[in-house]
Write a structure and sequence with these properties.
Layout: E1 2-9, E2 13-20, E3 23-27, H1 32-42, E4 45-50, H2 56-59, H3 62-68, E5 74-77, E6 87-89, E7 94-97, E8 100-106, E9 115-122, E10 125-131, E11 134-135, E12 138-139, H4 147-158, E13 165-168, H5 173-183, H6 188-202, E14 210-211, H7 212-218, H8 227-236, H9 243-256
Parallel strand pairs: 3-4, 4-5, 5-6, 10-13
Antiparallel strand pairs: 1-2, 2-3, 7-8, 8-9, 9-10, 11-12, 13-14
Length: 257
């Protein structure tokens, strides 16, 4: 049976470990130390590494993990500079991860070659490891891509089943919900999610993964078609008439928030 475990790293990163028995694969190991500590504590052998994009807090631990096992397969975007990359991907591939099929998606926007990994039928749900594309109640900054690219990536994610679990890489949910409440102050789902996430953080628990249904109800970057959201965007940019323009306006607003 597959388990998905969050390994905290740095101030607000999550390294996701996919574990089946005494074998595991990790997603975005920005730091080797907490991964190695977890492997030793759980008596688990690392069998592979999945990288979503090239930022150091997502791949900085690869070298240290390869020092322990130089033969580890390292999957990641061929279009980016990834330490130890020996399984380059472009999107559209299907991998076998611990015996389970994982779809590789190209989701440029945050970075030029950003990938996401979709594990289908994890405990009767899909699980999406999306790096810094979709966050709890937010989305990644556009460091290298365009609003159009990120918009298309978000639309692709939005087409997944509502019970898809979203495994993003950072504990940003409360900050993003503060912005969501500014965009939609009358949305009761946002207010309820703020309360729920505050309780989780007070208990030292993660606010992620979320479900896609939660994101559709509270994430402004998936709610560009909602009249109230579009109207708020047009208060800042009257020319934001198309959905992608509403999205771009929201992203620029969030950058200033």
């Amino acid at each position: 049976m597959l388990e998905i475990i969050a390994i905290p790293a740095f101030r607000d990163n999550y390294i996701w470990a996919l574990r089946a028995g005494h074998e595991a694969v990790v997603v975005d190991p920005g730091d080797a130390a907490p991964v190695l500590a977890w492997l030793a504590q759980e008596n688990v052998a690392l069998k592979g590494i999945l990288i979503t994009h090239h930022h150091q807090d997502h791949q900085g631990g690869v070298a240290g993990l390869l020092d322990r096992d130089p033969g580890l397969p390292v999957f990641g975007p061929a279009a980016e500079s990834i330490t130890g990359l020996n399984r380059p991907l472009a999107g559209g591939e299907t991998l076998q991860v611990l015996g389970l099929p994982v779809q590789v998606w190209a989701v440029p926007g945050h970075t030029r070659g950003h990938l996401a990994y979709l594990l289908e039928d994890y405990q009767f749900e899909d699980a999406l490891f999306c790096g810094d594309t979709l966050f709890g109640a937010g989305c990644g900054r556009l460091f290298e891509g365009t609003p159009e690219q990120m918009f298309q990536a978000m639309e692709k994610i939005a087409a997944l089943p509502d019970n898809t679990r979203i495994f993003c890489a950072h504990e940003y949910t409360l900050q993003n919900l503060a912005f969501a409440a500014l965009v939609e102050p009358e949305n009761p789902a946002i207010l309820a999610r703020i309360e729920a996430c505050e309780r989780l953080r007070q208990l030292g628990q993660a606010t992620v993964p979320s479900t896609l249904a939660e994101e559709k109800a509270t994430n402004p970057f998936l709610r560009h078609g909602v009249q109230a959201v579009a109207a708020r965007a047009r208060e800042r940019n009257p020319e934001a008439l198309l959905p992608v323009q509403v999205f771009a306006t929201l992203r620029a607003w969030r950058d200033e928030f």
